[in-house]
Design a protein that fits this description.
This protein has about 375 residues and is of the alpha/beta class. The chain has 15 helices and 16 strands. Strands 1, 2, 3, 4, 7, 8, 9, 10, 11 and 12 form a ten-stranded mixed β-sheet that branches. It has a two-stranded antiparallel sheet with strand order 5-6. Strands 13-16 form a two-stranded antiparallel ribbon. The structure holds iron/sulfur cluster (2 copies).
């Protein structure tokens, strides 16, 4: 196994955010200590998970106490911190200001010297080694940093099944370019292969996962909070994801980013081969962690010729449905929909099923959690029959 694959993944128990600083320190100590990653004077970019404007302490975005603790650890090691994120939808100074305010990030940096990024410039980066994309627009603060620390949350995700260290880096793509990538890469496999390209291009120095309270069910924004009680850290984001998936009951082949990382030799082939330090994975595993409605892979249960398989996949796939009781007709879903499959012409959102690419951006970005993921009746009946 090469050195990168054998990088340790630390797993530390942590029962509450009040004690997260000690758990973060321990998770870093187990993989060589923060000094291994940060030199005095380094410009350290911290990339939290601020998927959209959501109230803090809701398990949707990086917990402010967790972020504050990481900033303090980095500053004590001599690093100069800048926090940067490009959420879904438009990317401008006003959006960033309200994102930081609503998500508790403005508050989290108080008492530290950390800077919040308001620079919305970006650069098209050539990435000839990319398997799916060879050019990527990346926000400039990421490119100007000496050290990049990714702070993913342990959550499910309607499109990719799970969002973690690799997927967290999608937030270094500026604003609406994200929709463009969804539109171009409308299959889960190609989209996730792009995410692995992006992560390999950005090369985060370190990933520290907030797995204290995660999200199960219809993540990344409409699921339920679930206590997991762990902090994890690694210099290898692909291995960190494999370990986190194992904790919440996903096999590597069920999550396209993990499967692709294995295929490219960026991590071990299976969780048992990971270099876990701290608490063993089987001591923190949560076998009944709820998966997203969109995830249940009916076709895993049936062996069909590929043409029929692909037709069935389409016909039986989970889809977004608007809950009109919760919808406030803000139009955000229509604005963020990559193929413009949602119309607001009648004053309420209407989805054109023929155009929908099932990226679930509408579910992710709806401020009222009014977009639900539903499996068609035939899908539910067949699953019950085949179970
Ligand atoms: S984003 Fe949500 S609340 Fe706004 S129009 Fe769409 S479904 Fe309704
Ligand atoms: S309707 Fe929703 S799931 Fe379908 S393409 Fe638009 S944003 Fe994606």
């Amino acid at each position: 196994m090469n050195e990168f694959i054998s990088e340790e993944v630390s797993v530390v128990r942590c029962t509450s955010y009040e004690e997260c600083r000690a758990a973060i320190d321990e998770s870093l100590r187990l993989i060589g200590g923060i000094e291994r990653f940060i030199k005095k004077g380094d410009r350290v970019l911290i990339k939290p998970n601020l998927v959209s404007k959501k109230k803090p302490y809701s398990a949707i975005t990086t917990n402010p106490d967790f972020l504050h603790a990481v900033i303090c650890a980095v500053e004590e090691a001599g690093g100069r911190v800048i926090i940067a994120e490009s959420p879904g939808g438009p990317y401008n100074r006003g959006i960033l200001k309200s994102l930081y305010d609503v998500c508790g990030i403005t508050e989290a940096v108080k008492g530290t010297n950390a800077e919040l990024n308001f620079d919305t410039s970006f650069t098209e980066v050539e990435y000839p080694d990319g398997r799916t994309v060879k050019r990527l627009p990346i926000i400039d603060p990421v490119l100007n940093a000496d050290v990049i620390i990714s702070l993913p949350k342990l959550k499910t995700h309607a499109m990719t099944g799970y969002t973690g260290a690799v997927k967290n880096l999608f937030g270094v793509i500026p604003g609406t370019y994200k929709a463009e990538l969804h539109f171009r890469l409308d299959e889960r496999e190609s989209f996730c292969s792009m995410l692995v390209d992006l992560c390999s291009c950005v090369r985060p120095t370190l990933s520290i996962m907030d797995g204290i309270i995660g999200m199960e069910g219809d993540g990344p924004t409409s699921g339920k909070d679930r206590y997991i009680g762990v902090v994890m850290a690694s210099a290898n984001p692909y291995s960190l994801d494999m370990a986190a998936c194992d904790i919440i009951g996903y096999a590597p082949e069920e999550i396209a980013t993990v499967k692709e990382s294995c295929r490219r030799g960026l991590t071990a082939d299976k969780p048992e081969q990971l270099n876990i330090v701290g608490v063993p994975l089987d001591e923190v595993r949560i076998p009944d962690f709820l998966k997203p409605e969109s995830h249940f892979n009916l076709l895993k249960l049936i062996n069909l010729p590929s043409a029929l398989n692909s037709w069935l996949t389409n016909a039986l796939a989970s889809r977004p449905v608007i809950d009109h009781k919760q919808c406030v007709s803000c139009g955000e879903c229509a604005r963020c929909c990559p193929p413009k499959a949602i119309s607001m012409e009648t004053g309420v959102p209407v989805i054109d099923r023929g155009q929908c690419i099932r990226c679930f951006c509408c579910q992710e970005l709806c401020p009222r959690s009014a977009v639900k993921i539903k499996r068609p009746l035939a899908n539910r009946l067949m699953i019950n029959l085949l179970k």
